[in-house]
Amino acid sequence: MGSGKSGNPLKRNARKRTVARAAVKRRNRKLAIIISATLAGASALVLLIVGFSNNSSDVYDLSRVGNGIPAVVQIHDPNCPICVQLRGNIIAIADDFDNQQLQLLVADLNSDEGRNFAERYNAGFRTLLYFNPAGDLVDLEVGLQSSADLVRRFREHQSDF
């Protein structure tokens, strides 16, 4: 004489609530892990960029082109995602190069100096300009390159002089 279901409906509902609470806790735990990992990764990237910028504030000194050391200048727009990714790839390999043998510089399009430099060479963002030790433009590349490709290309440029 019942509904055909066995057991107390109050206990069934209590079990359902317990299962539902456990599922919510698992989901919240996963979200917390994902958010923590994302924040940690973003923090590491910011520290890497800030650390590189603070330790190498002269990377924006474009007057260094032609000072007797070959140079590579990135035409950089901080609002361009590809430029930012290219900048990150260069930062990741910068320690592989001695600043006395190859200068890795940045022409920031948000500065007058960077904008004027880019205009002088008729170069747009996402561009790498390769200069010989005398400051003559010898090559350029447009677009995103991987860190591995940049290492190979920078070493070739460095060994040319």
Task: Write structural notes for this entry.
- The chain is an alpha+beta fold and 161 residues long.
- Helix content is 51%, strand content 14%.
- The protein contains 4 helices and 4 strands; from the N terminus they run H-E-H-E-H-E-E-H.
- The protein has a 4-stranded mixed β-sheet with strand order 2-1-3-4.
- Helix 2 packs across helix 4.
- It is elongated.
* Helix-strand makeup class: alpha+beta
Radius of gyration: 27 Å
The SSE order reads HEHEHEEH
Arrangement of strands in the largest sheet: 2-1-3-4
Percent of residues in helices comes to: 40-55%
Largest sheet: 4 strands, mixed
- Beta-sheet strand percentage? 5-15%
Task: Give the overall shape, derived from the CA principal axes.
Answer: elongated
Low-confidence stretches: 51-55
Distance between the termini: 97 Å
Number of helices: 4
What's the layout of helices and strands?
Elements lengths: L8 H47 L15 E6 L4 H13 L9 E6 L3 H9 L6 E5 L5 E6 L4 H13 L2
Parallel strand pairs: 1-2
Antiparallel strand pairs: 1-3, 3-4
Helix pairs in contact: 2-4
Offer a concise description of the structure.
The chain is of the alpha+beta class and 161 residues long. The chain has helices at 9-55, 81-93, 112-120, 147-159, and strands spanning 71-76, 103-108, 127-131, 137-142.
Could you name the key traits of this structure?
161 residues; elongated; alpha+beta; four-stranded mixed beta sheet
